[in-house]
Amino acid sequence: MAEPEFEIEVDDETYEVKAIKAYLRGELKAKDLHASLEVSRATAHRMVSRFKEEGAGGLISKKVGNKNRAFSSQFRSDVLTIVREKYADFGPTLAAEKLEEIHDLRISDEKLRQWMIEEKLWTDRKGRQPRIFSPRDPRPRCGELIQVDGSYHRWFEKRGGECCLIVFIDDATSELKLLRFVEHETSYNYMNCLMVYIQRFGRPEALFADRHSIFRATNPKGNGVRMPTQFARACGKLEIQIICAKTPQAKGRVERANRTLQDRLIKGMRLANISTMEEGNRFLEKYRLDHNRRFAREPLDPSDAHRPAPNADLRNLLTYAVERKVFKDLSLSYNKLKIILDDCPLARKAVGSKVSIVQTLQGDLEILYDEQAIPFRVFDKIRRVRDVPEVVDHKRLGSALALCKTISEVEPHHYKRNAHVLAGFRKNFRDPTDPESTRLLNPPRELRRAHNGRPRAPLGRHPIVICSHSLESNEKEFEKP
After folding, report:
1. Rounded to two decimals, what is the model's pTM?
2. Structural domain range at position 423
3. What is the rounded CA–CA span in Å between residue 184 and residue 392?
4. Residue 267 sits in a domain of what CATH number?
5. Which residues of the chain have pLDDT under 50?
6. What is the pLDDT of residues 418-459, one digit of tens each?
7. What Rg, from alpha-carbon coordinates, does the chain have?
8. Is there a single domain that holds both residue 172 and residue 251?
């Protein structure tokens, strides 16, 4: 049975048009018209006149499409021309700033962003295509590429503090080559780990790391040249190439290994009741062998790419080297030390020039000029102004904070320090040697009013007492290069 067909009639006329037509046909009076349109009598007559002259289009407001504050088409064209020619790779915010500073064209960054999107000069986040990281094939031989990374984590959970785990993993086999717990990710610790690695397996062809300042200089010189870092310079002596990844996905093998270690290793140390780095480093070798037995794979090429260790002593290759100028009195400064060179022809030749100060991982110093050693002696430590706090390098910040914690534990809070609310106005806090405390013991009303009921400044000085064993342990950390 065929379904009945219905014709749907669409009425395009607005209510105003129907009312005016009814008025013109005499079906509505004038007072009914302006009451129906909810306008005044004069406005209703103007609408009727426009309808007679222009039809239904005459009832549309003349303000439609008239943007009083809109930029002209010529201004829009000029702005986009400048952006296209000079600031094509600029973001909208920076481009708007440069347009105002250089070209004296004021426009909001949001409006410029809309124009740049319309002209395909800018792509917003919604329109950007997701970045695709295609996997690469692993290196065919063992030792051809070693991925290195440091992972900060609470490896001992609540049983110990946070530390860093340095990981060396082979790209060809996914085999953990070296694991080491250290306090911080520094060049000193990476050099120590590299020395242990070379002694065990030999020299790898390349190290694959992130763009940390240990592996890559962050601030190039004026000519754009990046000077090698201390670790990169030492690797250059060993003929080991350093490759820096631009994204974490590029070194995904070591990143995934860190994720696995943060699960399995933590639980393993919890079962073994390990809570210190020393115990953890002894446990790491056992865990490494078990991890490789489960997750390592065979390389595509069975040959080993490791090269034998160099004939020279590794301690003389993995060193810090800096340049210092020699003064006329054959002295130079290094690491808060004043060094005096022995009077010899080579030392006299070096006056006014720069010599290389080489420091081994064990702290031994050697001064070289034209690759020749100059005998020297340490004259004295450089004097420092009293009561001036030391500028602590960020890599030693953890040790400095540990020292501050030791000081606060040994010397607890006292009511007479830090302008405490009870300082000066209680008999049991009186210090006979402190005249300020004695004066404020029973202060008159004027003095209380001046101090608002309590003194505003610390009263007297209190010595800081430090445990000798805590100080020695922290000094050892500070003396590390």
Report:
1. 0.60
2. 394-479
3. 14
4. 3.30.420.10
5. 1, 412-430, 454-481
6. 443 333 344 334 455 666 655 655 666 666 555 555 443 443
7. 39
8. yes
